[in-house]
Amino acid sequence: MSAANESENDMAPAGSGRRGFLAAGASLLATTLLSRVLSPAMAEGKRPPNILYIMADDLGWKDVGFHGSDIETPVLDGLARAGAQFDEFYAQPMCTPSRAAFLTGRYPMRYGLQSGVIPSAGSYGLTTDEYLLPQLLKDTGYETALVGKWHLGHGKMEYWPRQRGFDHFYGALVGEIDHYKHASHGVRDWYRDNKPIVEQGYDNTLFGDEAARLIRERKTDKPLFLYLAFTAPHSPFQAPEPYVKRYAHIKDEQRRLYAAMVTAMDDAVGHVLKALDAKGMREDTVIVFQSDNGGVRSALFAGESKVEGDLPADNGPYREGKGTLYEGGTRVVGFMNWPGHIKPGVVQGLSHVVDMYPTLAAIAGAQMEKNKPLDGMNLWPAISGGTKTPRQEVVYNVDPTGGAVREVDMKLVWAAGLPGKVELFDIAKDPGETTNLADQNPELVKSLQARIVGLSKEMKPPLLIMEAITLTFGAPPVAADPSSMFNELGD
After folding, report:
1. How many CB atoms lie within 10 A of CB 78?
2. Could you tell me if 391 and 352 are in contact, meaning their C-beta atoms sit under 8 angstroms apart?
3. Phi, psi of 489 (to 5 degrees)
4. Contact (CB, 8 A) for 236 and 305
5. Which ranges in the chain are annotated with CATH 3.30.1120.10?
6. What are phi and psi of 189, to 5 degrees?
7. Among 3.90.228.20, 3.40.50.1370, 3.30.1120.10, 2.60.40.10, what is the CATH number of 395-474?
8. What is the rounded average pLDDT for all residues in the chain?
9. Would you state the pLDDT for residue 40?
10. At 306, is the pLDDT very low, low, confident or very high (cuts 50, 70, 90)?
């Protein structure tokens, strides 16, 4: 079976029958064919465009100006309003899975990264038999660079960015660092390519400076794929004092610092745009922006630094936040901007971070021959043509404890472990997930549960759990301090 056909299988709606399956397959096949026809690089006989992919870290859905926030994001606002805003754009509920989904075009359950994130002490990473987007684009003739956060494996060098298709890497390998010390648990985590370096400064400002430098100093004989992955506004909540002073009116300290981080990130993006303009690259650069997951609302998912009280992210009308399968954890800010190729507006219909792999591949005119079967769909025809996306299903996640799927408007959240919980929501009518319709729709619940069970049979065991088991049962025994032996409590 071809990769395209296997991907069609993965996207077939549960309980839809042969007619539904064939319709879904025909839709995806048409999308694939259109990508060949409508790829700008192929249609116009030009060199493929540059790609700047910007990812924020734990950004709340509402915490940008174009979603009504009081946080100042004029650069992002301008890009979003001049481009295509994704109306229902989904990511995984946590950092590592989302980044993996973006770079593979495949759900993280397929390679064991569906549970949690890679911890600082983790030795595993994104399996090396996945053919990542930077590898695909590099094989297509792109220069590739990652500036910012990686979080897809740091324990072994084989997992590092330079070994995964990036010509350049600057930033941090782990998931959370002090934004000034560039360290996790006191261990410095700051690299240029494969070498540790020592620098001073606020990390998100440094990321903007480095991205701008790469653009200014690069030769223009190749198109550029630049993945700019900020650590803002992930905890610890830290920002340069001038930004903090701009939000002196916000009484809550965490919210004040959080807002300052978001605006600092926005300014860094503006710095990069100026470099693109100065280099004459702006008109020929596709810019995509998204958050890796929803804003964090629970300290349980905030990371390894200390946070307390009411956490500052605002996910607007959506329920809960990072780490959960509700809309607040998975429905994220997202837009695509490309002058002259994308008209301002809103992309109607479902989209998922896995779709970015085939969409960018289509824009670049890349031949997808080495990748494994994709879960992502090429959305370029919908984005460029102002039509509704063909996606009918979103798999929020599937792991040994349960999962969540959405088919068209109906979403099932199933906590399968004891005591268990089943929730069914009509997202079109109830985006805040306030009314559980499970009892009124037993057959639909059964169908969606069957879809989750079917997906679970395809998943790899979560690497986080496997490593925890190894560490727990493979570690040597802990012996008592000899000085405490044979005391009055002994014999």
Report:
1. 15
2. yes
3. -90, -10
4. yes
5. 395-474
6. -135, 80
7. 3.30.1120.10
8. 90
9. 62
10. confident
- Taking the CA atoms of residue 484, residue 489, residue 490 and residue 491 in that order, the dihedral angle to the nearest 10 degrees is 150
For the question of residue 249 being annotated catalytic, the response is no
CB 293 within 8 A of CB 39: no
Which residue, among 151, 163, 286, 279, has the nearest Cα to 225 in the 3D structure?
Answer: 286
Closest CA to 148 of 216, 227, 73: 227
Question: Which range (31-45, 236-250, 307-321, 469-483) has the least confidence?
Answer: 31-45
Give phi and psi for 395, each to the nearest 5: -100, 105
Alpha-carbon gap, residue 413 to 349, rounded angstroms: 20
* Distance spanning both ends of the chain, measured CA to CA: 70
Q: Residue 135 pLDDT > 80, yes or no?
A: yes
Measured CA angle at 264 (ends 82, 198), to 5 deg: 125
**Homologous superfamily of the 48-391 domain (CATH):** Alkaline Phosphatase, subunit A (3.40.720.10)
| Whether residue 476 has pLDDT greater than 80 | no
Count CB atoms within 10 A of the CB of residue 323: 22
Q: Which of 151, 154, 179, 182 is catalytic?
A: 151
Known catalytic residue at 151: yes
Is the pLDDT confidence value at 484 over 90? no
The sign one gets for the Cα dihedral 241, 242, 243, 246 is positive
Contact 360, 354 (CB under 8 A): no
Strands, E, within 61-142: which ranges?
Answer: 84-90
Cα–Cα distance, 358 to 3 (Å, whole number): 12
So what's the pLDDT on residue 9?
A: 36
Torsions phi, psi for 435 (to 5 deg): -120, 115
| Predicted confidence band of residue 243 (pLDDT cuts 50, 70, 90) | very high
Count Cα atoms within 13 angstroms, Cβ side, for 125: 22
Per-residue pLDDT tens for 357-371?
999 999 999 999 999
Q: What is the C-alpha separation between 431 and 391, in angstroms, rounded?
A: 18
Residue 110 Cα distances to 175, 283, 467, angstroms: 21, 37, 17
Residue in 67, 95, 341, 352 annotated catalytic = 95
pLDDT tens track for 307-345 = 888 899 999 999 999 999 999 999 999 999 999 999 999
Q: Name 300's bridge partners.
A: none
pTM: 0.90
Which residues, in sequence order, are bridge partners of residue 453? none
Residue range(s) in the chain whose domain bears CATH number 3.40.720.10 = 48-391
Please give the pLDDT value at position 472.
76
Backbone angles phi, psi at 122, to 5 degrees: -70, 140
Render pLDDT for 41-62 as a digit per residue (tens, 0 to 9): 555 668 999 999 999 999 999 9
